[in-house]
Amino acid sequence: MFLEVADLSIVSSTGTQRTSDGIYRALDIYLDKHRHLTESEREKVCRVLDCNKLSGEACEHASRNERLPLRVVVHMLFVVQLKLREEVKAEMDKLVLHNCNCHVNKNKVHPR
């Protein structure tokens, strides 16, 4: 039943910028109430989670959540690392562009 509801939620938000935080919260509650699930059963339930759409706060919580299967936590941390790398690269590109523009403006000859 849980997987059906989660799948419906995913389908309804496909193509939107919505986060998966609500799905993560529901998943966390489900795993808390069903502690008897095996690791493979928890992995199956967690397949509905899109780590790319989790907010920073949800990622931080998930990284410390002992109810999540280890494979899911590792995947989520990998996604966070890739996002961080992209953000750092974008900031570095901005700095390089800014520095290039400063050098170009210094060398321009202004008419009198």
From TrEMBL:
Name listed for the protein in its UniProt record: NPH3 domain-containing protein
InterPro entries attached to this UniProt entry: NPH3/RPT2-like, NPH3_dom
Family matches, as Pfam families: NPH3 (PF03000)
Family under the similarity heading: Belongs to the NPH3 family.
Keywords: Ubl conjugation pathway
Domain of life: Eukaryota
Record PANTHER family: OS12G0117600 PROTEIN
Lineage of the organism: Eukaryota, Viridiplantae, Streptophyta, Embryophyta, Tracheophyta
Domain named NPH3: residues: 1-83
